[in-house]
Amino acid sequence: MRLLVSVRNAVEAQAALAGGADIVDAKEPLNGALGQVEPATLSSIAAAVADAAPLSVALGDAGKDDIAEGLRAAAGAGVAFVKLGFAGGRRVTIDLPAHSFLAGPALIVVAYADYARADAPPPDDVIEIGRRMNARGVLLDTHDKSGPGLTSMIPAAALRAFVTRARSCGLIAALAGKLTDDDIELVCEAGADIAGFRGAACEGGRTGVVSAARVRALRARLDYVTSKTVFTLPAI
Predict the structure, then answer these.
(1) Which of 101, 104, 173, 210 is the most buried (most CB within 10 A)?
(2) Maximum CA pair distance of the chain?
(3) What does DSSP assign to residue 154?
């Protein structure tokens, strides 16, 4: 299982790498669950990461954010993945054109555990959206970051079922949403390919500052848990 750490600037990106993150994810937490960073900030993060790790970028939600501008910035920065959610678009997302994502960064579609509150499609529908849009993977996250975390909202069996269905559709399966080090074993048991963190990697919570020491602790816990489990990690 790979460790993803969300960062809001180049300094945090360097801390994430120093702590052992496998994937660095550019996201502005003050702009929501999938808040875009400014293009200049993205460029500085990309320069800090360089070839040290894959870089992913939050595009926002197709129902309400300027996806085209964010996609252009991501492509220009040479990122590996873009994350796209569907809050506010429950009825229209299935018709989004796949051709927009055939070149450049690979697409990761984002499902929300609290999908009804976010007016988003249910997680199983997002898996189907991802399949139709030629996505590389699917992330199950939480939309309301003031609410409960993923593992409080979704039972272990349901997490395993989500991961299994995603993989059966040829998608990488990622889990995130206020995860802590105590959740790593549960995420591992669900079979996820990627575990995403922000708040647990920060001094001061989600809107605080990513700490290399906190990332290092997550890395150590993840390595310990996965050492007891046989994983076949997909190529990213």
Answers:
(1) 210
(2) 43
(3) S
**Helix, strand, coil: what percent of the chain each, to 5?**
40, 20, 40
Residues acting as catalytic residues: 27, 83
For 145-182, how does the pLDDT look when each residue is reduced to its tens digit (9 = 90+)?
999 999 999 999 999 999 999 999 999 999 999 999 99
Listing DSSP states for 56-103 in one string gives EEEEEETTTS-HHHHHHHHHHHT-SEEEEE-TT-TTTGGGS-GGGGSS
Model confidence, pTM: 0.92
170 inside domain: yes
Enclosing domain of residue 191: 2-226
Q: Are strands 202-203 and 209-210 parallel, antiparallel or unpaired?
A: antiparallel
CB 162 within 8 A of CB 137: no
Give tens-digit pLDDT for 105-115.
999 999 999 99
Number of domains in the chain: 1
Q: Which two tokens stand for residue 174?
A: 């990622």
